[in-house]
Design a protein that fits this description.
The complex is a heterodimer of chains A (about 450) and B (about 550). Chain A contains 12 helices and 19 strands. Chain A has a 7-stranded mixed beta sheet, with helices on both faces. In chain A, strands 2-1-3-4-5 form a 5-stranded parallel beta sheet, with helices on both faces. Chain A has a 3-stranded antiparallel beta sheet with strand order 17-18-19, with no helix packed on it. The longest helix of chain A is centred in the N-terminal third of the chain and has 35 residues. With about 450 residues, chain A is of the alpha/beta class. The N terminus of chain B is likely disordered. The chains are: A alpha/beta (about 450), B mainly alpha (about 550).
Chain lengths: ~450, ~550
Amino acid sequence: MPTASISSTQVCAHRSKALSRKVLASLAVSTLSLAIAAPALAQEDPIKVGILHSLSGTMAISESTLKDTMLMLIEQQNEAGGLLGRELEPVVVDPASNWPLFAEKARELLAQEEVDVIFGNWTSVSRKSVLPVVEELNGLLFYPVQYEGEESSENVFYTGAAPNQQAIPAVDYLMNEVGVERWVLAGTDYVYPRTTNKILEAYLKSQGVADEDIMVNYTPFGHSDWQNIVSEIKQFGGAGKKTAVVSTINGDANVPFYRELANQGVEASDIPVVAFSVGEQELSGLDTAPLVGHLAAWNYFMSVDEDVNYDFIDAWYDYTGDDNAVTNDPMEAHYIGFNMWAEAVRKAETTDVDAVKEAIIGVSVPNLTGGYATMMPNHHITKPVLIGEIQDNGQFSVVWQTPSTVAGDAWSDYLEGSRDLISDWRAPLECGNYNVVQGSCGGGSDVASSE
Amino acid sequence: MNSIAGRHWLSALVLLCLVALGLGQAWAQDAGASEAASSDQGPALLSALAESSFRDKEAAIDAIAESGDERARRWLESFAEGKLARVKDSGAIVVVLENRGRNWPVADALTLEPAGEISRRELDRVSINNSLRGYLDSTLALIDLRVDDPAQRLAAARDLLGEVEAEAVDSLSELAAAESDPEVAATLEQAIAIARVEQGDVAAVEALSGSLNGQARAALMQASRSDDVALAEAAQAALAESEQALKLNRAAETLYFGLSLGSVLVLAAIGLAITFGVMGVINMAHGELIMLGAYTTWAMQQLLPGQPGLALLLAIPAGFLVAALVGVAIERGVIQFLKGRPLETLLATFGVSLILQQLVRTLISPLNRTVVTPEWMSGSLVINEALSLTLNRLYVLGFAILVFAALMLVMRRTRLGLEVRAVTQNRAMARSMGIRATRVDILTFALGSGVAGLAGVALSQLTNVGPNLGQNYIIDSFMVVVFGGVGNLWGTLVAGLSLGVINQVLEPWAGAVLAKILVLVFIILFIQKRPRGLFPQKGRAAEG
């Protein structure tokens, strides 16, 4: 198995790097502890932090930077004295973009390595695969990517955006500030775009948009021939009404899509494209000069002009040794998630899963956009929603943002079946899908009636 | 929306430009004199731009455009590029020259002289959005209508299509009447007619009748939904006028899309047609050889910064060589030991493909690499207002045909080609005639692999250059070769092009996902009927 052997040496390299840093850190601390007679770090068992991100296969492109982000955050925490006087130890595994392997690796982390918390996953399908394992073994999972909602698990904390923290505000911006009347909903053919588009379609219709003014289009994963679709979009947009494309096209397929847009002369001032899966990292594989003005909706942009953000970016530059490295929204989500977990551990004075789960609700930590993020009882967090326009340097410039933070909503208000559900993991309710009309808890993390 | 204020300002600006045109030289002297008389108004103009909200920025733009300051154009262009920034402490406005990394080199906006580097933390960017960018474009276009260069005037007139406001129509008409260049005049007339139709002028509909221009058709469509019956009917008639021509253009466009997709399939498959089709080796690492060709393009561009075009041209031989060498290594290292054992070859080369992918991930990066498209390959070739062919795909189409022709020549006209055909038809006989079969194997595999590298060079202009590049093409490549008939290069060409066209014809009504499925179902049925593909090998060669 060549894949496995290479990735494990990679992991080893990281471990030894971390180890040498750890030796240095413990040296420094032990000299310090001589002076002030504080307990030395290395005496107790380290706190184990599991990192479950693909380092090989298709998703490595997105997930490997998140692994590095976690290693950087853990290193910083150790330099600052660890947690509860204990050292943090990262445990990196490689689920290799293989969805069933995610579940196996999660089991390995929880049962064999006995980690105290897991940070991981990118795609929804991998999260769905891990979910039963984390619930069975009562683990903690922090999931950092924007997703389609319609899920709430006692053991998962969703630090990425729910649809009401990304898609709906973006559509509101286009409708009210840009005056868009005609909509193309284009997405990759899998669960996140399908659910998001279902929510958006219901929302647009509730706002009085006619059926013939909505065009829905799905493409396979990694689609690279966009000629026909771009030509169709041009045709659809040439009907004398302001048109916009709402894109849930997944990562990789965006590059040829944007290239085709530019080549066929679709400019942002005519037909703007607002994307929910295109961030700084996706744009780094692309000459963005012809794309200036196309939009993206996120809860964080690298270009946000705040000192806390610049500190984070500088630390990332130092950690990667590359002054052209980029930061993105899921990295911020891990930053928030890690700090929330650390804060909850401090509050609970233990890493015990049940204690941390209880302590973390209501915890507020700074985000990177100059505000605070709070963990809500439904295991989602509060986030500001930012709309940015692509610049010629591959960055976004913020053109609009919500006046205050928005709390994540696990169950969409625009879908039949999920409208009446709420999630509240505090006692006495302790339910992920409580039906306020029937006054009963559905149980489980998912809901069959959402279809 | 701030369009009401915008309209007002735009019309004021149009009037101003026209007055300026009328006064000609006198105006310029006047402006020069007034500038000399007062002290520099630059700081005030720029601060107004930097400090106002998005809604008020249009006024600030107009103030700059009307100032007559010779730096005005440069300021507006920098603003349009999002490169204006204000230093937080001093409030001075600077032009950012390079906005990457920790510290940004800047130039003083007033003197336009370089002013060293400033930390990005110290800068407040002067932000811009789409509607302002559109407004700036028409502002700059109106200024450009006065320049001497007809090409620039034409570009400006095109920018004004669909962007002319009601109040500006009369003054623009005068300008169009005075225009010496017929093409510019015609474009301006069209821009005016669009504006008139937008206001509900039935008489102007005639001027747009039969036009293929997107903006003109958009205006007509809007008019056809109007409550004014006469206008709506006239607009519908005008739209119907161009319907036939439009349909023809769409059909031509679909054909082009199909041929272009087909050419990509042919390029990806043609190397495989040699290694799999002619030699009979199932090489699952074929996709990774394509990927290596694409990475070679990237590497060449890294070696020759600032010359993407030259790097791309040099990447053609380099990509061929790199992929051919790796191909030889695979042949010598793995395939030669598994001769005549297709299942083992399949598994072993699949392993090789995983190793190559992970090697790229570990050594270079799991992230996609940026391959720059040279200037001469960007944009599109305009045939008429409804039909334009994207240049990068046009080049790839041409390249695919060239590669195919070259390969045909090699196979038909050279000694190597002769030997390859001899060895594949009857290995034992060929050897007894004195042909060194092993050497032929190596060379053939190198040729097929090198062609895969060429495909990679071409694909780097169309899609992502990343470790997964090859995976996306391996299935399609096998499909094309099997459909075309194993061992037949012509079959690969015809199969690739026809699959491309079928796919693109199906896509508009079936959607991309279903179109792909339908094509696969079609191939399965076809192979059931004709197991040896479109152009089966005939005679004794077929038995081998």
